[in-house]
Amino acid sequence: HGSRWHDRDGVLEEQEEKRRKRKYNKLFFDFKNRVSQISEKFSSDRDMKIEYEEPFKQIAFKGVPGKEQVSIIPTQNLLIALDDKPPFVLTIDEVDLAIMERCQFGLREFDLTFVFKDFSKDPLRVSAIPKKKLDSIKNWLRTLNILHYERRDAVNWKKLMKSIREDLKDFAEGGGWLAYFDPEEESDEDEEDSASEFSAPAEEEYSEEEDEYESASEEVEEESDEDYDDDEEEEGEDWDTLDKRAVEHDRRRNREENEFNRTANRTAKRRRK
User: Fold this and answer.
1) How many of the other CB atoms lie within 10 Å of CB of 12?
2) Can you tell me the distance from the alpha carbon of 112 to that of 143, in angstroms, rounded to the nearest whole number?
3) Which of 41, 86, 99, 161 places its Cα 20 to 30 Å from the Cα of 72?
4) Given a cut of 70, is residue 184 above it in pLDDT?
5) Model confidence pLDDT, tens digit, residues 48-76
6) pLDDT category of residue 97 using cuts at 50, 70 and 90
7) For 189-200, what is each residue's pLDDT tens digit?
């Protein structure tokens, strides 16, 4: 009897949590719509109007922009993670280049580094992103017209940016980023000869900051392994149930992708204006 009552309490608590979530979501959307209406009515200058960012949850991904793994969500103009403090916020218009590092066969995670248009700023790396999110992230970068490349190894950004800052004219005349990340020229020999100069340093040469990055990545990888094992152990559902769930999942994903493409096209048109 005790076990049955415990299960019932858990179900009621879950239902109450869903009800509260729906309530607060509705309150927020009503507030957002009301503010937008008032802003549009009383603001003659378009730049003064209040516009809310819409999250693209269908292409959200897990990653480590700091010390902890968080859920990172793109919007029209930002990349945000609000699970941790301080929150992670990246302004898309400030990004010049995106590099996907450690994209190797056999690795289940990769890193995504953003290089800013202001070269005086250090690049920003989001580590330990699940490999299955690689294609959706590349599609998102393409819709924003952000130059991006894939690499099999990690980049020593400290050394590379120091070299670029010392002679910006030589960097521009030498082909810019294409001179460093041209995918057509990438081969095993080229990787050893040219790219190795700016590859990540040997293990004993890592700085304290890079050590912390490595430890964070290892912790996330261990958690991912545990999740993976748990998923494999789930049992008890028949094939009909799994087929129905797969069909519904595909339908929902198609709807979300269509909505994302429409929103991305509107955003691209506004950027071109």
Assistant:
1) 10
2) 17
3) 161
4) no
5) 678 788 889 889 999 999 889 999 999 98
6) very high
7) 444 444 456 776
Give the total residue count for the chain: 273
Measuring CA to CA, which residue among 148, 141, 62 is closest to residue 103? 148
Instruction: List 127's β-bridge partners, or say none.
Output: 64
The mean pLDDT value for 141-150 works out to 94
Token output for 53: 């960012």
| Two tokens, residue 186 | 């990438």
- Range 70-77 contact pairs with CB under 8 angstroms and sequence separation of 24 or more: 72/126, 74/140, 76/263, 76/267, 77/53, 77/267
DSSP the chain: -HHHHHHHHHHHHHHHHHHHHHHHHHHHHHHHHHHHHHHHHH--SGGGS--PPPP-GGG-EEEBSSSS-EEEEE-SSEEEE-SSSSPEEEEGGGEEEEEEE---TT-SEEEEEEEESSTTSPPEEEEEEEGGGHHHHHHHHHHTT--EEE-SS-B-HHHHHHHHHH-HHHHHHTTTTHHHH-GGG--HHHHHHTGGGGBPPPGGG--HHHHHHHHHHHHHHHHHHHHHHHHHH-----HHHHHHHHHHHHHHHHHHHHHHHHHHHHHHHHHH-
* Residue whose structure tokens are 């890592």: 206
Could you tell me the CA-to-CA distances from 71 to 77, 79, 94, 137, 207 in Å, in that order? 17, 11, 21, 14, 27
> In the predicted model, what is the mean pLDDT of residues 213-220?
49
Whether the CB-CB separation of 150 and 183 falls below 8 Å is answered with yes
Q: ∠136-140-146 over CA atoms, to 5°?
A: 135
Q: How far apart are CA 24 and CA 20, in angstroms?
A: 6
